[in-house]
Design a protein that fits this description.
Distance between the termini: 67 Å
Number of strands: 15
CATH class of the domain at 91-370 and 378-398: Alpha Beta
Number of helices: 11
Shape: globular
Radius of gyration: 25 Å
Strand content: 15-25%
Order of helices and strands: HHEEEEEEEHEHEHEHEHEHHHHEEE
CATH superfamily of the domain at 91-370 and 378-398: Metal-dependent hydrolases
Largest sheet: 8 strands, mixed
Structural class: alpha/beta
CATH topology of the domain at 91-370 and 378-398: TIM Barrel
CATH architecture of the domain at 91-370 and 378-398: Alpha-Beta Barrel
């Protein structure tokens, strides 16, 4: 071999080695090779789907999770946010709210004053995805989409009512002629990017017809049912509902309610009814659905003491609940934490669990490549009081507060300006714009 050939061969080997090393760096640590838009540094990550529960950094690029790892370099980061002492979780999912805000004065929650605008209440509590629970039906879902879903920064999904007019009032909830399973399923399929389930609610008849029609529509559309149960007089059987009418994956909301015709989960001796454990084992999903009237301490506390936990934490947000005992998602989560649920379980029931139950497994986790929906939460020790729907107080020593909410890589809520530069660092006119 000539000297020139030898030199060329050595150069090719060196070049190949350099390429190999660069490729290895990219494969092992993509955040080292790509520009990072936001780097959350020093927080304690809780990501139940991926079994992460320890200090990690989170890198965001192009609206996606780029990397979750220890000690990610700041070299390529446009913005570094120090979140030491805080918890970094997937963006919270509130699976039960009422968001079809409008001006129909004859209505209750459908296109009415009783529902609320999502963006006003979501980001400040770490919520990036919120699910309307039946405010609209097949007749008015397009209006709900136009008025609320399309105009919200929050990701808004929906259970929609088996009643075509949605939740206009208890009078319309009795109209069996407006409960059309086939039409309901067709609309659900047409808007499958947004509709994640069917809601049955506030029926006062002593039969299971609305449940059966909701389940039929859900079967046709391959989505779950959420049931608000208990207006019949005499009460209908919880055992029949759980073991015969609903399917595994269907949902029972307002778990800790206490109303005369409902059939509570805790009996008069403060014992959790055996059928509740059996139903949960069968796969019935128990949703908190706190609301104004559906959180009673003598239902919730005995349940916890006897080992029964809800599967999903949700608010049932509307104008009557937000200024009552419910307040917001962080307050509801804090109640369960103060009753003894671990922080990891609270986060699980506010992120990955609801994502699975609504069949949106693209949400509720921090997997690399997933949408960068993130909540940064402060766990505060102190003395706090938590109200139930009867305005009775339970004392607690833990409270959750959202510091930072990120949706698709964009900061939507920054309680203390931690993701923003100091006021004197920005050039420009006297307003810093």
């Amino acid at each position: 071999m000539s000297c020139t050939s030898l030199i060329n061969s050595q150069a090719k080997i060196r070049y190949g080695c350099i390429l190999g090393i660069l490729l290895l760096i990219i494969l092992i640590n993509p955040a080292q090779a790509q520009q990072i838009d936001i780097l959350l540094k020093g927080g304690h990550v809780i990501d139940p789907k991926n079994d992460i529960d320890y200090p990690m950094d989170v890198a965001i690029a192009d609206g996606k999770i780029l990397q979750v790892a220890s000690n990610i370099s700041t070299d390529n980061a446009s913005k570094v946010v120090n979140v030491s002492g805080l918890y970094v979780t997937p963006g919270l999912i509130d699976m039960h709210a009422h968001l079809f805000q409008g001006h129909d004065n004859s209505s209750w929650l459908a296109n009415a004053h009783g529902s609320v605008a999502p963006d006003a209440f979501t980001f400040r509590s770490g919520i990036t995805t919120i699910v309307d629970a039946g405010s609209s039906g097949w007749r008015n879902f397009p209006k709900f989409k136009q008025q609320t879903i399309d105009k919200s920064n929050t990701r808004v999904l929906a259970f929609f009512s088996i009643v075509g007019e949605g939740m206009q009032g208890r009078h319309t909830a009795q109209n069996l002629n407006d409960m059309e399973p086939v039409v309901t399923s067709l609309i659900a399929k047409q808007y499958s990017d947004y509709i994640v389930g069917i809601k049955k609610h506030h029926y006062m008849g002593s039969d299971f017809i609305p449940v059966e029609r909701a389940v039929k529509a859900a079967e046709l559309a391959n989505i779950p049912v959420m049931v608000d149960f208990g207006d019949a007089d005499p009460p209908l059987s919880l055992e029949t509902l759980f073991m015969e009418k609903l399917r595994p994956g269907d949902m029972f909301t307002h778990t800790y309610s206490f109303t005369p015709n409902r059939g509570e989960i805790v009996d008069e001796n403060f014992e959790v009814k055996p059928i509740i454990f059996e139903a949960q084992e069968r796969g019935i999903v128990f949703d908190v659905g706190h609301g104004q009237g559906s959180w009673i301490w003598h239902q919730a506390i005995p349940s916890f003491e006897q080992g029964f936990y809800p599967d999903v934490i949700s608010t049932d947000l509307h104008i009557w609940s937000m200024n009552h005992a419910m307040k917001d998602m962080n307050n509801v989560m804090s109640k369960l934490l103060s009753m003894g649920m671990s922080l990891q379980d609270v986060i699980l029931r506010s992120t990955w669990n609801p994502a699975q139950y609504i069949k949106r497994k693209d949400l509720g986790h921090l997997t690399e490549g997933a949408d960068a929906d993130i909540a940064v939460i402060n766990l505060i020790d102190g003395e706090f009081g938590y109200l139930d729907s009867l305005l009775k107080t339970m004392k607690g020593n833990k409270k959750l507060e959202t510091e930072l909410t990120i949706l698709n890589g964009r900061v939507m809520w920054d309680l203390n300006g931690m993701a923003s530069p100091e006021w004197d660092e920005l050039p420009g006119d006297r307003y810093g714009w």
